[in-house]
Amino acid sequence: MDEQLKKELENQSHHFRSLITEYCRFESVAAQKRMMPETAGWVERLLQQTGFETRQIEVAGAPNYVYGYLKGTGDYTLLLYNHYDVQPETPLELWNSPPFEVTERDGKLIARGICDNKAEFIARICAIRGLQSVHGRLPINIKWILEGEEEIGSLHFDALTRSHGDLLKADGTLWEGGGFNEKGQAALALGFRGMLYVEYNLQSVKQDAHSGNAHVLPSAAWRLVKALASLKDENGRVLIPGFYDRVRKPNESEVRAMRARVDPDMQEKYRAMYGIDSFLDGRQGYDFEAAVFDPTANIAGLLSGYTEEGVKTVLPAKAMAKMDFRLVPDQDPDDILEKLQAHLKAQGFADIQVTKLGGSEPVVTPIDGEFVQKMIRICRDFTGQEPEVNALVGGTLPLLGAMKHNVGTLGVSTSGNPSYYASGAHAPNEHIRVDDISRAIEFNMFLFSELGRD
Amino acid sequence: MDEQLKKELENQSHHFRSLITEYCRFESVAAQKRMMPETAGWVERLLQQTGFETRQIEVAGAPNYVYGYLKGTGDYTLLLYNHYDVQPETPLELWNSPPFEVTERDGKLIARGICDNKAEFIARICAIRGLQSVHGRLPINIKWILEGEEEIGSLHFDALTRSHGDLLKADGTLWEGGGFNEKGQAALALGFRGMLYVEYNLQSVKQDAHSGNAHVLPSAAWRLVKALASLKDENGRVLIPGFYDRVRKPNESEVRAMRARVDPDMQEKYRAMYGIDSFLDGRQGYDFEAAVFDPTANIAGLLSGYTEEGVKTVLPAKAMAKMDFRLVPDQDPDDILEKLQAHLKAQGFADIQVTKLGGSEPVVTPIDGEFVQKMIRICRDFTGQEPEVNALVGGTLPLLGAMKHNVGTLGVSTSGNPSYYASGAHAPNEHIRVDDISRAIEFNMFLFSELGRD
In chain B, whose CA is at the least distance from the CA of A192? Predict the structure, then answer.
């Protein structure tokens, strides 16, 4: 890296701090539609100030999408994706500082949404500004799309890509997420699991009753508990008939990538972070890695009756649960929803209302394809070592299905985000490490330059 | 009833309205220890103003007990029991008026705690004042004990009766509760079920996690659901080994009383009130009545993860449930607690912390005994028809065990409370009917006079 770029990197790393502080102040909680227009406006202005032509795209029912285009000197067009929304900050009592005020402590910057994924947006902005400052124009064209409902399942991304597919076409796409691992390898993620998110609601009687009637009145809480319990056996295997029908096994290259990722130290750190002795079903080593190819059924929320301090002897009229199913190739969310409803009906729980709050299909970019191989080369050149290739990420990027079908661009996520394994996405005290900021910006600079080189 | 008493009854029924309004303004929620000293002070002053010698009794950890003594002209001493605490007002959104402001609508007075059991205290006060106004002194001595934690299980009533057993000794005791049924019969309740109230808490990982980790991290929500599901089979039978060991069948007189109580109209009203077609396990007729002799396991509260609007993809670190077991003769709460804990351990849920929040034994006053027979006679004389005798009430009066062991007085509850089957104790929009007020006061007047006659 030449001296001028090095100096500029230092400069941008400094700017990063004030920009991220400003950005995180926006309480852009998608689940509660908080401050969506304000946040979109701030993001658009930042793009404009970085030289982008911008527009906000309205799609009925969605917070506005922010779109930007930056013309470079070359022909290669890269699409960047980020989201400006964040997860709810609850449970508030577990935060050690105000969730929407970036707080520095022990070498960390702490705030809701900082790792997922406001810091990545700012790191990319800083990289572009750094390159512009030294070289004027970038060697590539950049398209940028930001949405405001990733954390609630990118509900309208399909509609966006149907109406604006051409606008989003590019030679390659970089999704959100990904840092460097603890060995200094760049991380590449080739695919994400799909998801079906549902809410269960039921009402057993017209009003809450005195629990002294429990021998004659049906309880919503009991029915919900029994219905949920019917979904899994003692070993965690999902009992919905046909649930595993379309699950495909990882192919040879994916197995090889997973074997290369096995890291006992990382698994040890994970255990320490969650305070557990062993993982679910005793998974470790390669089994820990490969378990990502197993679909899940997670209870995200559970509520019925009296939940405050002390005693209330009530028979609850209503009960609610939220559940996310993480789906693997080639499961389909609508197919799973149908099977779930059929199962509940067959078990005698037809009165439980199942509402689909989100659905996205699992999408994997082929590991042996040209785009992935090019990205592997760039990552190798930057770090001097093989990248860590993640064939399938445990989480979900809900827009991938829409992008695949309606735009057709292949994409990956890689190390442009100053996050690490313990950043605590979605959890209290979400954070990034100060020491990771400069490398993230430098990596983005390198990446944008290298993509223009071919 | 002579003219003077009749006039006085009208007078007292009028006073009742202002007194109950004042009383219900005290937000005396025991679960949250709200306004306990203020409420006790108001109650004590009202007793003083009615001629009682009073004192507040301190028991470590409990809201103060209020004790009053009124000397009459005869030898017979009656103990009255009431509680000045109420259930929490949640869920607030289901109330049609402010819970602590008595609101009149459609011939009803609506407020938290009005039926359970502030109106009964006021009705008894009004009856005593009415008799005093006409006759000067009452023919009986009255002892009165009021507590402030009935709704959380009368946790310190045992300690109170151990230290103040003699103070509470009387020839007969009237518990709280009970009105007239829809046929105009006075209701008598001879016993109450016992209760074990527990809270379950568990933590599966140190912090909430992104649910994309659900294939390797243990979930508190799932463990709790599975643990709860293990407590009951599909037919609602409790699966805790030994749970039914000490359950005794109702005796012949109790069966006869239950048969006399069977009322298809009442069961129809109950169905309408709760908006259901049939009761649990299709119970009806005598089976509906007799089911009260079955113990229950009720989920009173359930909480884990994200429960607000929309989507949050979180794997919950913690989960909580509250449960009340209604116990029948001769079950014992501590015995059931031990069996519950042993069951959870045997099922692999030793990590679930079980906290006992309340325990009370089932107590039944013998239906063929002298006190009950005397009360039956008084009820019959007042209404001109046989009373409705409830051998066992579905709810719980937690202090009965302590009274039985440490004081030894026999008691019943009867129609001194202007409540009816749909008063909605513990539920939103708890209320009494305006039309029932005068009869409740008159009944108490008659009762106090008749007890002095023998």
Answer: B212
